[in-house]
Structure formats: structure tokens, C-alpha cells
Amino acid sequence: MKLFLDSANRKEIEKYLATGLVDGVTTNPSLLSAQGQNTKEVILDILRMVPGDVSIEVVEKAPDAVYTQAHQIAKLGDNAVVKIPFAFEYLPVIAKLVGDGVKLNITLVFNLLQALMVAKLGVTYISPFIGRLDDIGADGMVLIEDLVTLKDQYDFPVEILAASIRHVMHWERAALLGADVATVPPAIIEAACKHPLTESGIKKFDEDWKKLGKQNLLD
Ligand code: G3P
User: Fold this and answer.
1) Element containing residue 172 per DSSP (H, E)
2) Quick check: CB of 28 below 6 Å from ligand 1?
3) What is the pLDDT of residues 198-208, one digit of tens each?
4) Which of 50, 99, 122, 176 has its CA 20 to 30 A from that of 67?
């Protein structure tokens, strides 16, 4: 399973890239807006820093403007993936961009048929938002499960990118269900690394080792 970092913060991205685990990055207008006014510089830096795919979302609204902006984003780097929110009026734009060879990540996907439509159009990634479905009392994991079934049933060459991951269980379940990618916020990766038994185990080994009073292990 690929791991993408859900962040537009360059310091965070640098920190997590160093773990060797990060295959790509997803940004969105909310994450970019939190980084201040110099959006283009932030985007270009992230594209340079990250060896894998970086999703950058269009902010234009009219279909023609979305099409133009998608090409502008795609030109920023070989690893630039254009994120477009699902909307009926964007379907022709999506079809055209796929035909132009632009890598797309269709975001804000909340049901199976939205996913089916864009999978048929040949997009690269589909982003179902797990946490936001849970927020309205639905079960986001069921959508991941259904998308994996759909993808396998029809052999769609799309990658299911589990997004809006709010806690460790979302990531764990997405992995077990066979999502291709999870885009995970830094705090969730940090939480996943922690276990009280790991911490108490390290403490105990340390205490026992110190009882021996030796400085070096291999002396
Ligand atoms: O990957 C999408 C993500 O950034 C949205 O997460 O927590 O705002 O629903 P959230």
C-alpha cells in the first residue's frame, strides 16, 4: 500500500520524507491556504522535494477555466497530479484531460457511482473521503470496501486513494480492505508509531542495561 502525506507544509513534508515511507503528497485548498500567500512557491517547492505524485487541486469553478487551470498545474512538474472535485459539469472536462494525458485525482467522492463514472473515464486516482462520511453518520469504510470490489470486478486501472483519514483505525482498515493508497495527515502517522508497550518495553530494557554499569555494548 502506498502512503501519501496529506499536507502542504514543507517542513512536515521534509520530516516525513526522511522516513523513507512517503510515496507522494496530497494538498487541497484548505491545506494550501494555511501556508500563506506564496502558494506558487509552496507548490513548486513541494513538487521538487517529493519524488512521487503530488496532487494539487484546481480552484477555478467554470468548466473551461478548470480545464485551463488543470493544464497549468500539470505543466508545473512531471509528478504534478491535478485534483478535481467530482461534479457532473466537470465530466466532459475530465474526459478531455484524460485524453490529453493529464494525471487526475478526483476528489470529494462520496458514493460508488461517482467513483464508477470517473473510473470509466480513466482517471489515475479516486479519493473517497472516509472521515467526512463518518461525520454525517455514514460508514466511510463501507465505501472503501465497495470501491475495492468495483475496481477488481471491472479491472479498472484506477488507484483508490483513501482520504479524509482522521484516526489510526481508518488507515488500518483501508490497508486491510485493499485501498491502493492512504493519504495520511502527519499526526496520524505519529499516532500509529506509538504503542504504550513499545514505550514501556524500551524503558525496561534501558533500566536493565544500566544495572550492568557498562558504557559500550561491544567493549
Ligand atoms: O485528503 C483529504 C483531506 O485533506 C480532507 O480531510 O479531515 O478535512 O476531511 P478532512
Assistant:
1) helix 168-177
2) yes
3) 999 999 999 99
4) 50
Q: pLDDT, tens digit, for every residue of 119-166?
A: 999 999 999 999 999 999 999 999 999 999 999 999 999 999 999 999
pTM: 0.95
Q: Whose CA is nearest to atom 3 of ligand 1?
A: 164
Q: Is 75 a catalytic residue?
A: no
Q: What is the rounded CA–CA span in Å between residue 89 and residue 180? A: 27
How much distance in Å is there from the Cα of 189 to the middle of ligand 1? 15
- Are the C-beta atoms of residues 114 and 87 closer than 8 Å to each other? no
Return the CATH class of domain 2-210.
alpha beta
What is the rounded CA–CA span in Å between residue 150 and residue 80? 26
At 22, give phi and psi (nearest 5°).
-90, 120
Determine the distance separating the centroid of ligand 1 and the alpha carbon of 90, expressed in angstroms: 21
Q: Is the torsion defined by CA of 82, 157, 51, 164 positive or negative?
A: positive
Bridge partner residues of 56 (DSSP):
82
- Rounded to whole angstroms, the Cα distance separating 74 from 38 reads 19
The residue whose CA has the least distance to atom 1 of ligand 1 is 163
Give the residue, out of 5, 30, 126, with the most ligand 1 atoms within 8 A of its beta carbon, to mutate for a pocket test. 30
